[in-house]
Amino acid sequence: MAVGTIRVLNPNVANQIAAGEVIERPASVVKELVENALDAGASRIDVVVEGGGTDRILVSDDGSGLERDDAVLAFERHATSKIRSASDLQAIRSYGFRGEALPSIASVSSLVLATSTGAAQGTRVRLRAGRVLSVEPAAHPRGATVTIEGLFHNAPARRKFLRSPATETSHIASIMTRIAAVSPGIAFSLKSGGRVLAAWPAAADYRERVAQILGHRESGLLLDVERRAGALRVTGLGSAPALSRSTSADQNLFVNGRPIRDRRILHAIQSAYATLLPRGRYPLVYLFLEIPTEQVDVNVHPAKAEVRFLRPGVVHDLVREALLQTLGLGRPVQDFAPRATGIAEPPPGEWFVGPEPRGAGEPGGATPGAPFLSETGRQHVPSSTGGPSPRSGLFEGVPLAPLAQYRDTYILASAPDGLVILDQHAAHERVLYERFLAESRSGRVVTQRLLFPVTVEVTPAERVAFEESHPSLRALGFSIAPFGENTLIVDEIPALMSGAMTDRLVRELLGEVLDWRQTEGMERLRHRIVASAACHAAVKANHPLDPPRMRAIVDDLLGTALPMTCPHGRPVLLRLTLDRLEKEFRRT
């Protein structure tokens, strides 16, 4: 290596590198500034965004504020009031502590800080691309106001990866919602484009705050959670089985007041609900963990979104047992091995079976397009787009005669060469999905006007998702309009969806929009919305069916392009051949 090739980075370049780790998108800026306001003891925090946060972000608080010298020093890298020595890292209770947020944000924007402690005249500091332009006296009440403009103006590579302004605004709303949930005693507001997206006054406790966020209808289905294991304690809310989502986005976790994501805890949640919710459905939870600071490391992620536990297994079991207790399941019975029966297990390929999809990040989770076994043992990969494909000839022209319903969930049907068992929900879901998809692609969706319009309470992020997807929902036959600040009104739905609960269906569809990525394309969004709608409208498990209804589901399924799986990839049916039956009864 030649002499002189190693050099110290320019501070501004170093800050831009740090910005790449800490400031992923406008929502990251809002998170850092709001957390600074919380650390400053604010009782009210107001946020205004324009252009999804890339044009303008304003965060104002009534916290302790800064003196002039501190206001300038705050933009030096690693300048912080939160820690003094390495030992302080073992007892961090503040949100921020590294002193990286402000200099990182300032390095990729134009920033103005106006602040005052209330004891003297305030200070205004102006910066652009990390350079201080001016420091001057300014009138300002106690607290601070930070204004960001032109975010990522000097980092085009970062800016081009941002999504639409509406989507970025929804990310900001989600961040605000999570922070507000864990800070019920503080008032928050969020405005965008001159509209109020959220206005949460100070609440008495987290249950009242969650009711402000979700609305009283859904928050009424949340159960109290509380359990202690030594110095560890978990409190919060978990949904009853009647309330679930199609993604894990509403599983809100907090450790010592800090919003986090943790795969082990998410697994504990799914484990607790495993026998209560079908695969692909997720509960709503707000869980607040209190852990001695020496047993958790918060300094393991650039954006402080993850933590490391000293005893992760104990935390996992505490969360799981707390939810089981809340759901009335108690400590589960230990798994047991099947006893020997003298009957050989069917060899691979005899049954139509397939791995049911697991949640993202769940151990053993199936990947999209995972194969299932056909009656010949060959692998077939379901279509990832959900579009029609050449139908398997397996049941083409083959009559299936429904015989009975088992446990109000499965249809038993006879075929010329054996017995077929159908999951009534998955079968009906496949039928509705293909019909609805065909109608939407042809532009001729048959709609049904509701006798009584339905109101739907939505979160700020869901409201933004509605505004972004309104034309698409209208094209799919949903007539939805704003009805107040955080409420939508629905007066028309697709006729095929008449069996669904309208309010939950709409929130489910908005959840799909929030989870959608533009790189997936509009056709993928259509698939997700149609699949979710079909799931809600399909006949459910534990629902009695009369013979004509069973006959209709079976006949309709045989007319679909992909009768073997539901739109989410779950198996629709199993088949036991006559040869297999005769072999088991020793007739051959």
Explain how this protein is built:
- The chain is an alpha+beta fold.
- The chain is 31% helix and 23% strand.
- The protein has 3 domains: 11-202, Histidine kinase-like ATPase, C-terminal domain (Heat Shock Protein 90), CATH 3.30.565.10; 208-326, Ribosomal Protein S5, domain 2, CATH 3.30.230; 399-588, formyl-coa transferase, domain 3 (2-Layer Sandwich), CATH 3.30.1540.
- A hairpin with a 2-residue loop joins β11 (251-255) and β12.
- α13 packs antiparallel against α14 (522-537).
Secondary-structure map with pairings?
Elements: H1 11-22, H2 26-39, E1 44-50, E2 56-61, H3 68-73, H4 101-107, E3 110-116, E4 122-128, E5 131-138, E6 143-149, H5 156-159, H6 165-181, E7 187-192, E8 195-200, H7 206-214, H8 216-219, E9 222-229, E10 232-239, E11 251-255, E12 258-260, H9 263-272, E13 285-290, E14 296-297, E15 308-309, H10 312-326, E16 372-373, E17 379-380, E18 401-406, E19 410-415, E20 418-423, H11 424-442, E21 447-457, H12 460-475, E22 479-482, E23 487-494, H13 502-515, H14 522-537, H15 547-558, E24 573-577, H16 578-584
Parallel strand pairs: 1-7, 11-13
Antiparallel strand pairs: 1-2, 2-6, 3-4, 3-6, 4-5, 7-8, 9-10, 10-13, 11-12, 14-15, 16-17, 18-19, 19-20, 20-24, 21-23, 22-23
